[in-house]
Amino acid sequence: MTGQVLCTRDGPLARVTLSHPGKLNAMSRAMWRELQTLFVALQHDATVRCVVLCGEGGHFCAGGDISEYPAFRFHEADLREFHERDVWGGLQAVLDCDVPVLAQIDGNCMGAGVEIASCCDLRLAGASARFGAPIARLGFPMAPREAAVVMRAAGAATAAEMLLAAAVLDAPTMLQRGFVQHVLPDAALAEETLRLARQVATLAPQAARLNKQTIRALNPPLVPVKWPLSAIESIPSDAYRYADSAEHREGITAFLEKRPPVF
Amino acid sequence: MTGQVLCTRDGPLARVTLSHPGKLNAMSRAMWRELQTLFVALQHDATVRCVVLCGEGGHFCAGGDISEYPAFRFHEADLREFHERDVWGGLQAVLDCDVPVLAQIDGNCMGAGVEIASCCDLRLAGASARFGAPIARLGFPMAPREAAVVMRAAGAATAAEMLLAAAVLDAPTMLQRGFVQHVLPDAALAEETLRLARQVATLAPQAARLNKQTIRALNPPLVPVKWPLSAIESIPSDAYRYADSAEHREGITAFLEKRPPVF
Amino acid sequence: MTGQVLCTRDGPLARVTLSHPGKLNAMSRAMWRELQTLFVALQHDATVRCVVLCGEGGHFCAGGDISEYPAFRFHEADLREFHERDVWGGLQAVLDCDVPVLAQIDGNCMGAGVEIASCCDLRLAGASARFGAPIARLGFPMAPREAAVVMRAAGAATAAEMLLAAAVLDAPTMLQRGFVQHVLPDAALAEETLRLARQVATLAPQAARLNKQTIRALNPPLVPVKWPLSAIESIPSDAYRYADSAEHREGITAFLEKRPPVF
Q1: Which of A189, A199, A253, C260 has a 20 to 30 A CA-CA distance from B194?
Q2: Set of chain C residues whose Cβ sits within 8 Å of the Cβ of A135
Q3: B121 domain-assigned
Q4: Residue B253 distance to chain C (closest CA, Å)
Q5: A218: nearest CB among B136, B165, B231
Q6: Among all residues of chain B, which has the CA nearest to that of C140?
Q7: Per-residue pLDDT tens digits for B56-75
Q8: CA distance C1 to chain B (A)
Q9: Of B44, B66, B57, whose CA–CA distance to B18 is shortest?
Q10: What are the tens digits of pLDDT across the range C228-262?
Q11: What percent of chain A has pLDDT over 70?
Q12: Which of C100, C211, C227 lies at the smallest CB-CB distance from A142?
C-alpha cells in the first residue's frame, strides 16, 4: 500500500488523482514514478485538451511519504537519486506537458503538494486549503530544482516564508501572493475547476500547445525541455551532502517517533 | 478608414491616443506602424517628460483588426512579418522610450491592448475595464515576444489564464494580479492619470531617463535595446508554421462569419 | 554624530538596529560600512539562527543622509565609490548572509530603507509604515544594483512608480504589491516579528542556510556571491556620469536649502 496516481478520461478531459488513503495523498517514490509515466503519456496523446490534477478524499497532497525516508535519505547518493530522478522526473513531466494543466487544490497542500501545484498552469483552491513546505521541521532543505519551481510560482518571499519559517498559509493569503488564481467555496471547487477545464477544451488545441511552449520558454528560471538553464545547472555539486548530518537524522527520526525535533 | 494613432502635446506632456472608431480602437497594421513612428519621435524629443497612452471613446483597445487578417495570416512569411515587423516594431518603440509612459485603460483592453499596456511603465484602469487575450477562440497562439511582454507585466499564470482559457478578467482582479497599479472610478480615470503625469513631469527628467534605462536593463526577459536576450533569440524558427493550419483558418473564418468556431 | 548600526544578541537571535537620532535613521556613509561589518560577522557566527533588522524610534530608515551629499555626489569617481563600495557593500553583506533576516518596518521606509528591506528574506510592516524612493526630487536616479534589489522584491512597476513618479505607498498597498508579507497594527509589530524570529530559530539551522543559498542562486537578477550575473555586469560604464549635471546639483541644493527644486 504505497499509494498510487490514477488517471481517468472524459472525452478531451483527463483527470489525474493523487491517491494515498490514510496519508493525505503523501507522495511515495512509486507515486512520483507513476506521475511521470502518466504525464509523459498525456503529453503524447493528441486527443487530450485539458488535464485536471487533484487529490483524493478532501486533500491535494500532504507532502512526501516520510515513512519511506529512513531507507534512503541519510545516504548522499540515494538522496540525490530520490530527488533528481524520482521527484524531478515527476515534476518535469508535468512541466513538459504541452496540454493545459489545472490544479484543483483542497485541504492540505504541503511540500510535494506545493511542488506539484507549482508545475501546473493555473491553481484553483478551496477556501479552507492550506499551503506550506515545513520541511525545516524535518531537518532538511528543499532540493534546488524543486525550490526553483516553487519560487517561480509563489515568489521568493513566499518560498522563504515556507522554507525558513515553516509557515502554513491559507488560501486567501496564497491568492494575494499570486500562487492561487481563484479561491472558491470548498463545495464549489470541483465543479468550478471542471467548468474551466471544459472551457479550455473548447478552444484551439494546437494554439494551446504552442502557447504552453512559449510560456515555458519565457518563464525562467525553469526551462526544462530544450533550453539550457545556467542557474539550475550551476547548483553546487554538494547540494545533497547534508544527507548524513545530525539535524537531518534528528528531524526525520523525531517525526517518526512523534516527538518535537531538537535542533 | 483603417484607424490611426494620434499624438497631442501639452507642454512637457504628450498624449498618444489609439483611435479606430467603430472597432473599439482595434489595431490595424497601419496603426502599429504609426505607434512605432510616434514613439521613436517621442524618444528623441528632449522636451517630453511624460507620455499618457490611451484609447478613444471609452475603450483602450479591443485587439487586432481581424478584418485585415485573411489577407496575410494564413501565409507563414507574411504572418511572421506582421508580428515581427509591424506589431513588434510598435511594441519595441514603446519599450525603448526612455520617457515615462502611463497607460490610461478604460473599457476593453484585449489582445493587442494588453500587449501595448504591458509595455508601459504604469497602468491605471477604470473600474469597469476588462482584460484578456482570447485569441485561442481565433485559433492562434500569441507571438513569442508579445507573450514575453505580457508575462513580464501580468505574470505567467495570468498570461496562461488569458491564453489557455480565454479568460476575461476585470480591473480589481488585474490589480490583485499586479498588472494594474491603480483602479479608479471610470469617471475619475482621465483626471487621475493626468494628475500623475503632471507629477512625473515636475521631477528631474534626466534621472527619469536613467531610471528607465536601468529598469529595462534589469527586467528580464525583455531587454530590447542593447542587451542580447537568449530567451527571445532562441524562439524556435517554426514559431509561425501554424499559419496555414486548419484551426487557424477555422478560428478567423468563424469570427468573420459571426459563428462559434469548431476546433 | 553620523549615526550608527547597532547589534544586540539574545541567544540565537540577533537584532540589528539602524540608529540616527533626529534624522529618522538616515544612512550615513559610516552606517553603510557598519552594516557591512555587522552582517559579515553574523554570516560567520554559527550560533546565530535569525536576524531581525529594524530602525530606532518608530522609523525604519528615511533614506540616505543628504547632509553628507555635497561632499562627494557631484564628482563621478567619488559618487561611484559611494554607491558601489559603501552602499553596495552594506546591501551585499545583507544579501550574502545565510541566516534568515526579517525586516521589521515601521514609520518611514524610504530610499536606502527600501533598498535594505529589499535584501531581507521577509518584510513585516506596521500599518502606518510608508514606502518610497523619491530621489527624482533630488535630481538623481537609483544606482543600477540598488534598483535591481528593489525591483526583485517590489516588482518593476512598483519600482517604476517610486522612481518615476516619486510615489509614496502605504503598507496595505505594499502588501498588495507583494513587497511586504504581513501588515500588523503598529503596536503589535515588534512582538509579532520577534515571535516569527523565535519560530525560525527553533528550526533546523543547516537547512535554513542551505535554503537561503538555493533561494539566492535561483532568484535573478541578483546573485551576488559566486554566480556571475550578466545583467548586472553589463550596467553601462557611464552609470554615474550624471554626477556633475545641473539637475543633480539643483535637486540636492534645493533640498538642503529647504525649497522646491526646479528641473
Answers
A1: C260
A2: 207
A3: yes
A4: 38
A5: B231
A6: B207
A7: 999 999 999 999 999 999 99
A8: 31
A9: B57
A10: 334 444 456 788 889 999 999 999 999 999 999 99
A11: 93
A12: C211
Give helix then strand counts, H and E, for chain A: 11, 9
Are residues B207 and C176, on separate chains, in Cβ contact within 8 Å?
no
Q: Kindly list the residues from chain B whose CB atom is less than 8 angstroms away from the CB atom of residue C164.
A: 100, 121-122, 200, 203, 208, 211-212
| Domain hosting residue C75, numbered range | 4-187
Does pLDDT of B47 surpass 90? yes
Length of chain C: 263
Do B161 and B169 contact (CB within 8 A), yes or no? yes
Length of chain A in terms of residues written:
263
What pLDDT is attached to residue B227?
33
At residue A236 the predicted structure's pLDDT band, cuts being 50, 70 and 90, is low
CA-based torsion, B240, B244, B250, B254: positive or negative:
positive
Q: Cβ–Cβ of C136/B203 closer than 8 Å?
A: yes
Residues of chain A with Cβ-Cβ distance to C217 below 8 Å are 144, 231, 234-235
What distances in angstroms separate CA C170 from CA B191, C107, C175, one per listed residue?
A: 22, 10, 9
CA-CA distance, A109 to A168, in Å (whole number)?
Answer: 10
- With a cut of 90, say whether residue C178 has pLDDT above it: yes
Question: Which of C222, C203, C214 lies closest to C95 in space, CA to CA?
Answer: C222
- Give residue ranges of B with CB < 8 Å to any C CB: 100, 121-123, 152-153, 175-176, 178, 181, 196, 199-200, 202-208, 210-215, 217-220, 223, 227
The answer to whether C95 touches C146, Cβ cutoff 8 Å, is no
Beta strands in chain A (DSSP E): 4-10, 13-19, 50-55, 101-105, 108-110, 122-126, 130-132, 168-170, 182-184
**Taking the model in full, what pTM does it have?**
0.94
- Residue C262 placed within a domain: no
Residue with cell 554607491: C83
Distance from the A167 Cα atom to the nearest Cα atom in chain C, whole angstroms: 9
Q: Is pLDDT above 50 for B129?
A: yes
Return the pLDDT at B236.
Answer: 60
Distance CA C99, CA C96 (A): 9
pLDDT given for residue B148 in this prediction: 87
Strands B4-10 and B13-19, how do they pair? antiparallel
Q: What are the pLDDT digits (tens) for B171-225?
A: 999 999 999 999 999 999 999 999 999 999 999 999 999 999 888 877 754 433 3
C contact test, residue of B152, B211, B233 with most C CBs within 10 A: B211
Closest CA to C174 of C136, C137, C129: C129
Is A223 in contact with B231 (Cβ distance < 8 A)? yes
Q: Is residue B233 part of a domain?
A: no
pLDDT given at position B235: 54
Average pLDDT over every residue of B230-252: 77
Mean pLDDT, rounded, for C24-29: 98
Report the share of chain C in percent with pLDDT over 90. Answer: 86
pLDDT in tens, A93-133: 999 999 999 999 999 999 999 999 999 999 999 999 999 99
Q: Is the pLDDT of residue A210 over 60?
A: yes
CA distance A255 to chain C (A): 13
Chain A residues inside the 8 Å CB shell of B178? 178
Q: Is residue C150 part of a domain?
A: yes
CATH of the domain at A128: 3.90.226.10
In this complex, do B210 and C141 lie within 8 Å of one another by their Cβ atoms?
Answer: yes
Q: Which three cell numbers stand for residue B108?
A: 476593453
Q: Contacts of residue B122 in chain C, CB cutoff 8 Å?
A: 157, 160-161, 164-165
| pLDDT above 60 for A227 | no
Number of domains in chain A: 1
Identify the bridge partners of residue C16 per DSSP, sorted by sequence position.
Answer: C7, C53
Nearest to C263 among B199, B204, B220 (CB): B204
In this prediction, residue B226 has a pLDDT band, given cuts at 50, 70 and 90, of very low
